[in-house]
Write a structure and sequence with these properties.
Layout lengths: L1 H24 L8 H20 L5 H22 L6 H21 L1
């Protein structure tokens, strides 16, 4: 159970890293600001967590948990940045979640 929680936390950390990279990308000098450095460091530091999690879970299982958390987390992050989704895009998110749930069912 701890490995699953760590995987979810790693995905949420990656979402936070994406948030910093999004802010950096909107800058005139996207690679020369602290937002880029913060996003880069967050992504790099998650590698330590992966080394802890991988011996305890199958890669496919990790992938499903990570992707589901990322899909939902990035949608939430998009709202924070004032982005909206059209109904067709919501359908795509729903289908992505459904596919991950189906894959999860096959893994357990």
């Amino acid at each position: 159970m701890a490995a699953i929680l760590i995987t979810i936390l790693l995905a949420l950390a990656a979402v936070a890293g994406d948030g910093f990279l999004k802010v950096a990308s909107e800058s005139p000098r996207p690679f020369a600001n602290w937002h880029f450095v913060a996003g880069f460091l967050i992504y790099g530091l998650t590698a330590f967590g992966w080394v802890i999690v991988m011996p305890h879970l199958k890669l496919a299982y990790i992938g499903v948990i990570f992707c589901l958390t990322m899909v939902l987390g990035l949608c939430a992050l998009g709202f924070y940045f004032g982005e909206t989704l059209q109904p067709r895009e919501w359908l795509g998110v729903g289908l992505a979640v459904a596919s991950l749930v189906l894959l999860y069912q096959r893994l357990v």
